[in-house]
């Protein structure tokens, strides 16, 4: 026997006797048999071996196991004993037979020629994409395989003569390449495999460990003649190619010196996206949310979303003035929302392209979150009505970690969007870096293999191949509701932008590009040769689109003012108006009737389901909650329950997401109860508040900050009538999501007129736990606040509080607008005996307190107060304890600033004026160059018109947020308390 014995050999020359034999039925369980050196074959055991469980390394799958099983049924000797038993030494028993050019493993030589077995079909299915003709420039070497054709491999590896290629072989059940009688000449088998897998389409799918899915893909690509299009479909494809190409040429003629990040070299992206949308619409999809980087964005806006061309051309006029609030953004970062009829399916379709910055893949999780939200609000639990499409660049797809984070959300119950179509615009270059320096894997798309997403590589200079692949991708998504990747292998005709010179760094590539015939020209010549269109028809179509562009260009000059609102990607119809009029700015009371507080509190202290066994420690926590309700007080956890429960009762959806949020990192929340005796049985009491309440979603996330915060931001974009919260496990950890905070949350409204009500819960506090579990870096958020420290907003004479909130870039909820809210949440205060609030602070007529004045002896005799200490957060409890120990309750007032931004100038002024004879001190536990001091000091000085100095009490400057030594922490704390209460420390006149 040759080396084929170590694989499955079911392609055998057909004899008359064998032709008459029928194939065995699917996977029957035969009687156990042992023959000589062959061990008993156990299918169930084999499915658990490394052979079945390591498809990435071996190119094997459960299909291969099935094939081995059929082979064993026919002849037990045809399966090597170590294969049958699932054993053998590493690298030998489970080694893949290889592909063209891979040397076979050492094996005793036998007489007679090698014979191509079923492994030939499998090898091509596994690795045929390596020798497919994918690169339009014909210069890439993605393949590690030589020789470069199946025929040369067969003759070289199996030792067959030319005459052997005409022998008839039986085909395995895992192929669809044809043969009515179950057999084909080897020459024809090779030809059909090359047509299916080695032309302009390369398919990676054999790592998928699902037989049905693999068979579905095989059928789509192996069935002879399946990639056929009608003349009408070809003419539609040509029209789309014309629009894609001529749009870029028009912009180049009119604005040759402007950056636009054009699509030249991948013009087939436009028909690719339209094909995906058409096929999805045909399957019932009503809404498509898209995200993409800047390359080709204007073309997508024009020819996929169908943004008015005059609005696009308007963006190129530098003389126009913006009429909307905010700073705006460059044109190739803007988004769009458009509802229209799909002309192919005659069904309505809503298309949304999400605005995003130059941070390329940062928009990926935002799109997924927005998609999930729309599915949620529509009750689309299977993703049949709403879907997402993500367009990527090759270098970013391979290089940006957020891609990996987003893929790993794809099948999590609370984050899955039931399949995304990923389209990679594979320029084969990243700015000036070629793939050899940009990634360590053969393809930029290899990251998608971690979630078993099929990857369809296609030569972007073959529009019909692109169209077919996109049809299959859309059909895959709508059949299996899983992710799929389309890799458009193309090139970038210009540099990174239109001003860039690519010859500096890629001279050979760009010499080839300059000689490259444009894809539209090649496709027109093909269709004219086939008689599908005439050259006159083509020229008329080109002239028609050119006229459309010229008319839009003329009309764009009539636009005197640039309206950013035309570029909204997430409009909220009806939210900003009431009875057709703009909503008035007001700040309604957020208090609740006491009976509601008691009812919600009792729910928080109960287990609503019968025969549900909870942990003993949790029983004590629930009893503690019941006691607080009876005493009419709330700690932080119960107060959170009151806030969430009251909103749910009013029909407002609440979604809380993040690492370990169900229990709470500090074991304080317990919003999800787990039965101690029944696996996977859970109870969420918050969903038992009222029969007609809104649903409460609380979900532990993957161990991701960047991806999950982006997802929740996208979720919050979809509707203003929801409370969407993301909690960091520790406040420190938000720094790995800094891109989302900086580029989307802080500046999103200014750049894209996009309001958002996302809430960030960031546990913060200096408690001697070291530098990594102390600070949520409040100074970073305060630095990005847009209120002026040197200007007292006197224009806000009326409705001061709400006007401030409206003008700022982030804060609160329950307003006629939405702003992000940053909450520095407690850790030790979760169980601090004094950190509680009375029900009296939550009854109707009450509001959030931006500033909490001192209500002790100092406030009763303000003229006797020598010092006012302003502070925020946990340090307050340290200060009042120290004040009491020193007997200074009547000489030092402690005032809490609860709303740091926008800064409560009015209330701080009132407190400062109350104590005219007092020094003013800002106290914080953070280091001087961190925390709040640099933000608060100039604003207090502006408030008091610089009539008095504002002194500092706190830790000195440092590079790390906190010490890791407990004793050092305590000594630092004592020093700052000493400074706060030493009345002579700042009194230089004494």
Short descriptors:
single chain; 8-stranded mixed beta sheet; 28 strands; ubl conjugation; alpha/beta; thiamine pyrophosphate; 36% helix; 4 domains; 990 residues; Rossmann fold; metal-binding; oxidoreductase; magnesium
In a few lines, what is going on in this structure?
The chain has 990 residues and is an alpha/beta fold. The protein is built from 35 helices and 28 strands.
What would your notes on this structure say?
It contains 35 helices and 28 strands. With 990 residues, the protein is of the alpha/beta class. It folds into four domains: 3-205, no CATH class; 231-567, Rossmann fold, CATH 3.40.50; 653-828, Rossmann fold, CATH 3.40.50.12470; 851-981, Multifunctional 2-oxoglutarate metabolism enzyme, C-terminal domain (Rossmann fold), CATH 3.40.50.11610. The protein has an eight-stranded mixed beta sheet with strand order 3-10-11-9-8-4-7-6, with helices on both faces. The chain has a five-stranded parallel beta sheet with strand order 19-16-20-21-22, sandwiched between helices. Helix 11 (231-254) crosses helix 22. The chain is elongated and about 110 Å long. The N and C termini lie far apart (105 Å).
């Amino acid at each position: 026997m040759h080396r084929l014995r170590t694989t499955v050999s079911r392609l055998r020359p057909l004899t008359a006797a064998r032709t008459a034999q029928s194939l065995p039925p699917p996977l029957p369980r035969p009687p156990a048999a042992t023959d000589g050196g062959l061990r008993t074959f156990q299918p169930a055991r084999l499915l658990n071996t490394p052979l079945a469980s390591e498809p990435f390394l071996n190119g094997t799958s459960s299909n291969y196991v099935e094939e081995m099983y059929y082979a064993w049924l026919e002849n037990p000797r045809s399966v090597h004993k170590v294969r049958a038993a699932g054993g053998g030494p590493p690298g030998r028993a489970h080694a893949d037979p290889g592909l063209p050019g891979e040397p076979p493993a050492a094996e005793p030589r036998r007489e007679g020629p090698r014979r191509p077995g079923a492994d030939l079909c499998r090898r091509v299915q596994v690795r045929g994409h390596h020798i497919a003709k994918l690169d339009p420039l014909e210069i890439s070497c993605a393949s590690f395989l030589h020789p470069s054709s199946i025929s040369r491999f067969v003759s070289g590896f199996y030792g067959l003569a030319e005459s052997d290629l005409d022998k008839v072989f039986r085909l395995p059940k895992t192929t669809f390449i044809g043969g009515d009688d179950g057999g084909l000449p080897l020459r024809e088998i090779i030809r059909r495999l090359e047509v299916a897998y080695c032309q302009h389409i390369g398919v990676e799918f054999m790592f998928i460990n699902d037989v049905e899915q693999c068979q579905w893909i095989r059928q789509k690509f192996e069935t002879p003649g399946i990639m056929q299009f009608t003349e009408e479909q070809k003419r539609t494809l040509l029209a789309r190619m014309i629009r894609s190409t001529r749009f870029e040429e028009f912009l180049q003629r009119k604005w040759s010196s402007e950056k636009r990040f054009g699509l030249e070299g991948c013009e087939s992206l436009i028909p690719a996206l339209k094909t995906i949308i058409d096929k999805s619409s045909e399957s019932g999809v009503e809404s498509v949310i898209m995200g993409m980087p800047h390359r080709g964005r204007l073309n997508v806006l024009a020819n996929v979303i169908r943004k008015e061309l005059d609005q696009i051309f308007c963006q190129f006029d530098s003389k126009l003035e913006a009429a909307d609030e905010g700073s705006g953004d460059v044109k190739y970062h803007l988004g769009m929302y458009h509802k229209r009829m799909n002309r192919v399916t005659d069904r309505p379709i809503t298309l949304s392209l999400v605005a995003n910055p130059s941070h390329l893949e940062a928009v990926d999780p935002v799109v997924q979150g927005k998609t999930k939200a729309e599915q949620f609000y529509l009750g689309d639990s299977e993703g049949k009505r709403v879907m997402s499409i993500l367009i990527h660049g090759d270098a970013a797809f391979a290089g940006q970690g957020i891609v990996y984070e987003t893929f790993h959300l794809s099948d999590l119950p609370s984050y899955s969007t039931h399949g995304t179509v990923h389209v990679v615009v594979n320029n084969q270059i990243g700015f000036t870096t070629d793939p050899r320096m940009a990634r360590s894997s053969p393809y930029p798309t290899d990251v998608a293999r971690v979630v078993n997403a099929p990857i369809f590589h296609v030569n972007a200079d073959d529009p019909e191949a692109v169209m077919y692949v996109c049809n299959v991708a859309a059909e895959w998504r709508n059949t299996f509701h899983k992710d799929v990747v389309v890799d458009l292998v193309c090139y970038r005709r210009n540099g990174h932008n239109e001003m860039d010179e690519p010859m500096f760094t890629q001279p050979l590539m760009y010499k080839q590009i300059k000689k490259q015939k444009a894809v539209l020209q090649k496709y027109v010549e093909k269709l004219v040769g086939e008689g599908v269109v005439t050259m006159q028809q083509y020229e008329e179509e080109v002239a028609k689109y050119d006229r459309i562009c010229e008319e839009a260009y003329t009309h764009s000059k009539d636009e005197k003012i640039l309206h950013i609102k035309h570029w909204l990607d997430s409009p909220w119809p009806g939210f900003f108006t009431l009875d057709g009029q703009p909503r008035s700015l007001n700040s309604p009371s957020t208090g609740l009737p006491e009976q509601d507080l008691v009812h919600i509190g009792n729910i928080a202290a109960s287990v609503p389901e019968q025969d549900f066994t909870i942990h003993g420690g949790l029983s004590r926590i629930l009893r503690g909650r019941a006691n607080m309700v009876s005493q009419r007080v709330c700690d932080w956890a119960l107060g959170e329950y009151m806030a969430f429960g009251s909103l749910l009762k009013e029909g407002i959806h609440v979604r809380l997401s993040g690492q370990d949020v169900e229990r709470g990192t500090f074991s304080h929340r317990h919003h999800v109860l787990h039965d101690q005796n029944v696996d996977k049985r859970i109870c969420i009491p918050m969903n038992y508040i009222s029969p007609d309440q809104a649903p409460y979603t609380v979900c532990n996330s993957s161990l991701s900050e960047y991806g999950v915060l982006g997802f929740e931001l996208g979720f919050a974009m979809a509707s203003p009538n929801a409370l969407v919260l993301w909690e960091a496990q520790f406040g420190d950890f938000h720094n790995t999501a800094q891109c989302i905070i900086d580029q989307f949350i802080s500046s999103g409204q200014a750049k894209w007129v996009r309001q958002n009500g996302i809430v960030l819960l960031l546990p913060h506090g200096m408690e001697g736990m070291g530098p990594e579990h102390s600070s949520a870096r409040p100074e970073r958020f305060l630095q990005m606040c847009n209120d002026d420290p040197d200007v007292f907003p006197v224009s806000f004479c009326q409705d001061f509080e709400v006007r401030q909130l409206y003008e700022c870039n982030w804060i609160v909820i329950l307003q006629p607008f939405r702003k992000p809210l940053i909450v520095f949440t407690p850790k030790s205060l979760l169980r601090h005996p004094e950190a509680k609030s009375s029900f009296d602070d939550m009854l109707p007529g009450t509001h959030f307190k931006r500033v909490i004045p001192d209500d002790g002896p100092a406030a009763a005799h303000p003229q006797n107060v020598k010092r006012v200490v302003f502070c925020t957060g946990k340090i307050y409890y340290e200060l009042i304890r120290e004040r009491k120990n020193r007997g200074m309750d009547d000489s030092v007032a402690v005032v809490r600033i609860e709303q740091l931004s926008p800064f409560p100038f009015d209330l701080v002024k009132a407190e400062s004026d109350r104590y005219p004879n007092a020094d003013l001190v800002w106290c914080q536990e953070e280091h001087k160059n961190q925390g709040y001091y640099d933000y608060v000091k100039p604003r207090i000085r502006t408030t008091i018109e610089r009539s008095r100095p504002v002194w500092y009490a706190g830790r000195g400057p440092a590079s790390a947020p906190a010490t890791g030594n407990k004793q050092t922490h305590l000594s630092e704390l004592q020093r700052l308390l000493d400074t706060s209460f030493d009345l002579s420390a700042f009194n230089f006149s004494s």
